[in-house]
Backbone:
């Protein structure tokens, strides 16, 4: 499939691979064939294939391609974790402003997951502290554990 500038999507992939990834990503075939409304793109690492939604064009097409290239770099089918967000941030800082919305969205989701983990840790720590207070009250000595 040709883009508006006479380049194929695979040509665009190779361009951005050189520009932002130092040609370190393996070769991928890029097709614009997704039709569902759930996904703008999909990276299938095992097949070295990136699928983009058929309705994407212009900046949305570039953003979708770069998003999937981040998946190609960090791995994982549904990986939108810290490595992925760091890749998005790196590309935005390199001038790819089309990814700012992705960075804001996935960055806030990641922050929320960390906040939830901190909340669970705090609750666990409160339980540990309560157990220690109870142990002291009923006379059970505290045993220090040393790391080996």
Residues:
């Amino acid at each position: 499939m040709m883009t508006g500038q006479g380049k194929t999507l695979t040509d665009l992939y190779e361009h951005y691979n050189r520009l932002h990834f130092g040609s370190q990503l393996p070769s991928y075939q890029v097709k614009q064939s997704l039709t569902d409304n759930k996904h703008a793109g999909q990276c299938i690492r095992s097949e070295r294939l990136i699928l983009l939604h058929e309705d994407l064009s212009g900046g949305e097409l570039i953003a979708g391609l770069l998003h999937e290239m981040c998946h190609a770099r960090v791995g994982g089918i549904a990986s939108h974790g810290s490595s992925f967000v760091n890749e998005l941030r790196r590309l935005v800082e390199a001038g790819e402003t089309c990814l700012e919305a992705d960075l804001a969205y996935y960055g806030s989701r990641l922050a929320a997951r960390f906040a939830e983990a901190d909340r669970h840790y705090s609750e666990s720590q409160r339980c540990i502290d309560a157990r220690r207070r109870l142990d002291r009250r009923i006379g059970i000595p505290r045993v220090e554990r040393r790391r080996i």
Q: What stands out?
A: The two ends are 59 Å apart (CA to CA). The chain has a mean pLDDT of 84.
